[in-house]
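Quick start: what a row looks like.
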Amino acid sequence: MKDRVVVAGAVCDKGRLLAARRSAPEELAGRWELPGGKLEPGESPQQALVRELREELGVETQPVERIPGEWPLKPGYVLQVWTARLLSGEPRPLEDHDELRWLAPHETDAVDWLDPDRPAVAEAARRLRAGELSGSEPRGSERDGARD
């Protein structure tokens, strides 16, 4: 049996990475993650990411490229991470999160990331530092940001 895929977005804007603090379930509450969720039948990972970020954050995004690797979650689930550009909207914690933060590459260690997210966060921060990810054109507020 193949593992079910959970996608997460390394959402970038103005040289920063979006972090989302879990409010549920209880065992994950208070830890930080890259927002996203489970693929639904018939969806591509990119389609699922766009849908999940719309549902969880109220934003429109564009997946850019997959960060190499796949990380185990609970039994039967694996995490795949895509870089994503913020196209429109201001991220808000709508589902399963109670706080969002935009982090500069040198600030990514300032929050307690869920273990499966750490390798992808490190790679996204490396790409931001190298200027490989910039996100969209300059946008609004400095502090704004959600996965099933």
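That is the whole record. The two ends are 21 Å apart (CA to CA). The helical segments are 45-57, 118-129.
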